[in-house]
Structure prediction request, 299 residues.
Amino acid sequence: MTELRMRAVGFVGLGNIGKPMALRLLTGDLPVWVYDVAPQPVTELEQAGARVASDLGQLAESVDLVCVMVRDDDQVREVLGRVVGVVRPDDAPSLIVAIHSTVGPTTPEELADVAGRHGVRLLDAPVSGGPMGAADGTLAMMVGGPTDAYAEAETSLSLMASKTVHAGPVGAGTRMKLARNLIHFVSFTAVTEAQRLAEASGLDLAALGEVVRHTDAITGGPGAIMYRDTTAPLDTDDFWHGVFTHVAALGEKDLGFAIALADQLGIDVPLAQHARTHLAPGLGLGLGLGLGLSQGEQT
Prediction:
């Protein structure tokens, strides 16, 4: 079966990200059915050309791909439970359910087991990029699940995301999203630490933010070091050994200066302390390298 045999796509959960995702689906060739308990976004989608399902049963009966973007694991389980047992037309392909909500690391496998008992194929397909990315179709979507289900759904998924990655079997999409968001929120925490340091130094925090956004747009931010396919220690003749040795030396030097400034100003910077110790090993340069530290500072 190919995507062209799909009759329609359904979308459940028309919140800040779900609504613009559903609107993006309307730019495709397939009819779009929507469902939400809130009437206002349903009306907006209907006015934009979507068909409104009276309940989840009607939606599941009418479409071949159900996209779900609801609040949490419990709501995802509730939606899945109400669509998997629906009697579908005899000539309809087996239903695919794509879970776009970010759920717990073991939830996708549990959901896939429930779905599989009813002949339903499940994709865990969380997204990154927020409401702005959803509105213009530039989300990144990380998909776990069967290769055939991904291939059949890919055309519709690509309407909502300019970057789709088939990460592996069910659960792989969620694990990739959790790793991606670890970067996101640890980085945010590091920003709050840097802001305290900047504020204590009498700096303009808004101007610092402008500098950060400007330079991250040039360098790629944290993703700039993410080109290796392993976290194993680097051989000395590896191309990245020279690159990361330079990165680690600069990082340890500048972190040392920032920590010294924080000590002078009485500002606690635990993430900076942790980063100075773990930057080089994390880059694959081995434990205790201490590139930017004196022997007495190596910990």
In short: The chain is about 50% helix and 15% strand. Residues 291-299 have pLDDT under 50 and may be disordered. Residues 227-297 form a domain with the N-(1-d-carboxylethyl)-l-norvaline Dehydrogenase; domain 2 fold (CATH 1.10.1040.10). Strands lie at 9-12, 32-35, 51-52, 65-68, 96-99, 121-124, 127-128, 139-144, 161-168.
